[in-house]
Amino acid sequence: MSRPFTVDDLLNVNQFTHRCPWDLSPDGGLLAVTLSQGKRRVTHETNNSQANGAYIVLVDVETGESMEPFSDLQMSWAGRWSPDGQTLAAYVVTQDALACVGLWNRHTREVLIVSNAMIPWGFNVPQWTPDGRRIIVPLIPKARGPTISPDIIVQSYTPGGPASDQHSPILEHSDIEKCVGVLEVESGIVTELASVLGPATLRMAPDGRALASLNVIASPVDRPHQIADFSIVPLDSRDSYTVAENVPVNAQFCRFSWSPDCQTISYISGGKWGDPQHLHCVPADGSTEPTMVTEIASSLGNFQIPWWTDDGTRLMWLQDGFLFHLSIAEGRSRKLSRDSTGNHLRINAIAQRHGESVLHTDDRG
After folding, report:
1. In the 8-state DSSP scheme, what is residue 338?
2. How far apart are CA 286 and CA 205, in angstroms?
3. Is 320 exposed, middle or buried (0-12, 13-18, 19+ CB in 10 A)?
4. pLDDT means per 10 residues in the chain (365 residues)?
5. What share of the chain is helix, strand, coil (3-state, %, to 5)?
6. Cβ–Cβ contacts within 10 Å for residue 177, how many?
7. From the DSSP assignment, how many helices (H) and strands (E) are in the chain?
8. Which of 9, 87, 312, 335 is such that its CA lies 20 to 30 A from the CA of 59?
9. Which of 193, 143, 199 lies closest to 19 in space, CA to CA?
């Protein structure tokens, strides 16, 4: 006889954690997946994070067997493999409710907790440099230290006041401030590089020498998008600098990419959904102003970024289910995705890894 579905049953349900990408080891043997359960949620920092209650599972792609590399910890999420596939870096919450970086050794199966790399909640993942010697993570500035969120946060704005002076509550939370950190894997030394005030997306250059940071600086209450600045954060001793200012963004702050030679950054800007959006290119050294290379008249997927061909001569993107490309030299774009009959082939998603692309298609259109 079946029993009623209870609250305990609900709290035990596994689900894929929102905005925590999977990562396959370089040898294709182990897939790192982040799951979450309601019973694992804890009170810490901005405890409404959608990563709360998460834990990493490693799945053997041949046998289907799975294990938890960070089973002794309260939570773990956003696991990323080192270039040699021997170490899994992840964000973890210890039994002392400290959110920091954890390293799992594939050979010994031991876990190293880097307690001096305290992290804020958010959607950034650990990023390895190509040589596997350093990991880039967002950090809680040491001057602020960890905080515990109150049970209730009350936020408000004045409807009749000047809209330019008011912003969405996303930028008013005290825990939103963070900085860019570099973790030296061998020594465990953590260095703070650049302050980042507000939500930001960090993307490493292909050569591992710098980060591009799209940092939200304003979220006006009268507009359906945020305003961001593009900054470059060198991973050596040089200061960070801005290459584009006051960029309107509306897709979780992440639609930009480096050229293969690390000389140029492409990004998509736009206002509310349905309005034209624009594809720009800007030199990574900030020597000239951004150049708009084409207008995109219809909407893109929420998280679709432009990406470069290996030779750096063309940009490609997914738009309304079709694949487009643009020649940088000619400044002209065209639709690429057609099937053998001459009809357009609709593409729903693109996954890329190690220079190869996998397209998910259907028969619509």
Report:
1. B
2. 15
3. middle
4. 62 70 92 80 53 85 93 88 96 82 95 87 83 92 57 57 52 61 92 73 91 80 73 88 87 75 90 74 94 75 74 83 81 69 47 47 44
5. 5, 45, 50
6. 15
7. 1, 27
8. 9
9. 199
Question: What pLDDT is attached to residue 155?
Answer: 55
* Integer Cα distance of 17 and 2 in angstroms: 29
Calculate the alpha carbon distances from 26 to 29, 31, 93, 181, 306 in Å.
8, 10, 26, 25, 24
Is the distance from CB of 224 to CB of 273 less than 8 angstroms?
yes
Whether the CB-CB separation of 124 and 84 falls below 8 Å is answered with: no
pLDDT value at position 358?
A: 47
- Among 345, 347, 309, 344, smallest CA distance to 328 is for 309
User: What is the SS3 string spanning 95-116?
Assistant: CCCCEEEEEEECCCCCEEEECC
Q: What token pair was written down for 303?
A: 């998280």
pLDDT of residue 354: 45
Residue 328 is predicted with a pLDDT of 84
Partnered with residue 192 across adjacent β-strands are 181
Measuring CA to CA, which residue among 342, 252, 341 is closest to residue 300?
252
pLDDT value of position 83: 96
| Of 258, 198, 197, nearest in space to 232 by CA | 258
Within 10 angstroms of residue 350's Cβ, the number of other Cβ atoms is 17
Structure tokens at 349: 């998603």
Taking the alpha carbons of 360, 299, 330, 246 in that order, is the dihedral positive or negative? Answer: negative
Bridge pairing between strands 264-270 and 277-283: antiparallel
| Statement: the pTM of the whole predicted model exceeds 0.90 | no
Instruction: Note whether 100 and 92 are within 8 A (CB).
Output: yes
